[in-house]
Design brief:
There is one protein chain. The chain has a domain of 57 residues. Helix content is 60%, strand content 0%. By secondary structure, the protein is mostly helical.
Length: 94
């Protein structure tokens, strides 16, 4: 049986959450929400046109999340991204 949370701890957590909301608004990283990821074809097209960081800003997630989702969908970012080709990833860049 889990240990009940004390009233003091509960009040502290509520105050902390309120200050985070005030500081960061609803885009606070502590609020979890479901991401509607683009399809494999759309994500691949986005990765060809933009960097992971730009895509991440649009989707309001981290660039790591974009990379993980691409990997999960079977997309090899190093082969298709402009940045890898320009700066050399060891896969045929200059």
């Amino acid at each position: 049986m889990p240990k009940p949370i004390s009233l003091k701890r509960k009040i502290y957590n509520e105050k902390r959450l309120k200050t985070m909301e005030e500081k960061y608004g609803n885009s606070c990283i502590f609020f979890k929400y479901k991401i509607n990821w683009p399809s494999k074809e759309n994500l691949e097209q986005l990765l060809k046109e933009k960097s992971c960081c730009q895509i991440a800003k649009e989707l309001k997630v981290s660039d790591s999340a974009v990379r993980k989702q691409a990997k999960k969908q079977g997309i090899n970012i190093k082969e298709i991204s402009r940045w890898s080709k320009k700066h050399g990833s060891g896969l045929g860049g200059t």
